[in-house]
Amino acid sequence: MYIPEAWHVIAIRRELRRAHREPVALRRFGLDLVLWRDAEGKLRAVLDRCPHRSASLSAGAVKDGQIECPFHGFRWDGEGNCVKVPCNGPEAQRPRHLANTAFELREAHDMVWMWWGQPRAAGDYPELPWSGPFAAVDEGYVHDTLVETTQVGWMRNVENQLDWAHLPFAHHNTIGTGFPPDIEVRAELDGDLLSCWPAHYEDDEGVPHTPLHYMFPNTWIMAVGGPNNYSVIAFAPVDETHTRMYLRTYVKRGRVPGLAALIARVFRPANRVIFKQDQRIIETQPPGGTVGARDEKLVQADLPIALFRKEVRRRMEAHAKPEESGSSSSSSSEGSGDSQTVQLRVPEPNERAS
Ligand code: FES
Ligand SMILES: [Fe+2]
Hints:
CATH class of the largest domain: Alpha Beta
Keywords: 2Fe-2S, Iron, Iron-sulfur, Metal-binding, Oxidoreductase
Number of helices: 4
Strand content: 25-35%
Protein name: Oxidase-related protein
Bound molecules: FE2/S2 (inorganic) cluster, fe (ii) ion
GO molecular function: 2 iron, 2 sulfur cluster binding; metal ion binding; oxidoreductase activity
InterPro entries: Cholesterol_7-desaturase, Rieske_2Fe-2S, Rieske_2Fe-2S_sf, VanA_C_cat
Distance between the termini: 28 Å
CATH topology of the largest domain: Naphthalene 1,2-dioxygenase Alpha Subunit, Chain A, domain 1
Number of domains: 2
CATH superfamily of the largest domain: Naphthalene 1,2-dioxygenase Alpha Subunit, Chain A, domain 1
Structural class: alpha+beta
CATH architecture of the largest domain: Alpha-Beta Complex
């Protein structure tokens, strides 16, 4: 499974509601993770496997802001350091070989983001990929989120949301009603932002009224009928063939208190109907990555999808080069050996930036 080295949305905050008092298990990137809040309230994540004898730490407890294994009571802090081994006695040294792999997290936009890639020094992480069109919903909006899981990988889900031509077929009785089947699609890539729209959305100056935007690696936004409502999607990779989907509606606050929240909430069942229309079809596609799907014959309306695949391939190749030069020798937890697999190392515990 190829996962771009970047910040990824992995959850929304309501899924971590219990994390200050108990561990929360989460499977992402093909790994079992355990998340909890430390004594300062900061969200932490390590592998959900005890370095001692492999029990699940998520079956344990949060004690003094540390995660405690249920089997023999060993404890780890948020950096993955083993800080307590009860059977060795209170005077024993911190056992470095019992360190766990910790992951860098951020909380923003009511979402939880995880850095997937090589660890960096504290100040060297890039900004979260939430800018440009996403800034539109930062002020004055309320939101409601539908959470679903699809049995296809993240690339199939992204491509489905870059696809204008499926509207009058997959959604013929919902959002595709009246959408013309014969369309010309425009697309452009600007850094991490891929934008696309049908040509008939353009005004006389060639400016489209509601383009959709996909931001590498895993967020998507589109205005719905004007600037008062936006649809935002985050595609969290669970593993090669599963994706956690966060389908969020943003509604601009108006004069009537609570009305925007009510409208956002009302969108949820409608979004579920639309999501199910997509799900029943995309789950018939081969579920893994699509970069190697060279037997699929794309047409003009697939221009955004072609651009997406080309850019993913470019990033994979750029990422693979250091590996080929032999600069990295550590083991990997990822990869199924197919032609589009790029292995990304899970960093060893003592490599983590302090
Ligand atoms: S298996 Fe976790 S402390 Fe022994
Ligand atoms: Fe759709």
